[in-house]
Amino acid sequence: GGSDWINGSGTARKVEGGYRISGRKIFTSGAAAGDVFMTGAVLDEDGAKHVLHFGAPMKAAEVRILDTWHTLGMRGTGSHDVVLDDLFVPDASVALKRKAGEWHPLFHTIATIAFPLIFAAYLGVADSACRIALDLAKKRPVTHDGRALAGRMMTELRGAELAHESMLAAAERNAPSAE
After folding, report:
1. Which among 128, 130, 134, 129 has a CA at the least distance from the CA of 147?
2. Residues 153, 147 contacting (CB under 8 angstroms)
3. Is 134 helix (H, G, I), strand (E, B) or coil?
4. How far is it, in rounded angstroms, from Cα 88 to Cα 97?
């Protein structure tokens, strides 16, 4: 979480036995309910930038959740900002060190698992909006334009549902790859 992607965010500083991590991670879904924050930080080492991937305990004193997520319709994702303030991460807790800004095969796994979860929240919002719109439309006289709009809306929703089913099927195959 925390808007980390190819370039990474936050900073890592090498210290004896590990790293000191600082940074503000925006849009961290489920922050208030999580026990472990899977994230990364950028290490500038010998003139090259690397991203360290690690899990941070959400209950650590150096980890704070900021109450920043007030987006209408998406509040339930709990996607608050999380601040890491000089958090110590032991060497043994770094799962991966990779070049910043470059695709790594790890992202095949992350995308296979994360995107169906992310998409599900938006699909739920769309499904609810569709039901609300149809309930409101039932209170109006039936027109050709109304039927056409409802049909297009339902077609778009069904397309999104099929895409989500495909994402879940890919995750269930448990064979992450570029494809």
Report:
1. 134
2. no
3. helix
4. 16
**pLDDT exceeds cutoff 80 at 2:** no
**What does the pLDDT average to over 46-70?**
94
DSSP result, 60-128: STTEEEE-----TTTGGG--EEEEEEEEEEEGGGEEEEEETTS--THHHHHHHHHHHHHHHHHHHHHHH
Distance CA 170, CA 57 (A): 30
Q: What is the CA radius of gyration of the chain?
A: 21
Q: What is Dmax (Cα atoms) for the chain?
A: 73
Q: Measure CA of the first residue to CA of the last residue in the chain; give whole Å.
A: 23
Q: Which residues pair with 43 in a beta bridge?
A: 12, 50
Kindly tell me if the per-residue pLDDT of 44 is higher than 70: yes
**Which tokens go with 140?**
């109006």
Residues ≥6 apart with Cβ < 8 Å to 4: 10, 25, 39, 40, 51
- Give the pLDDT of residue 1: 62
Question: pTM value?
Answer: 0.76
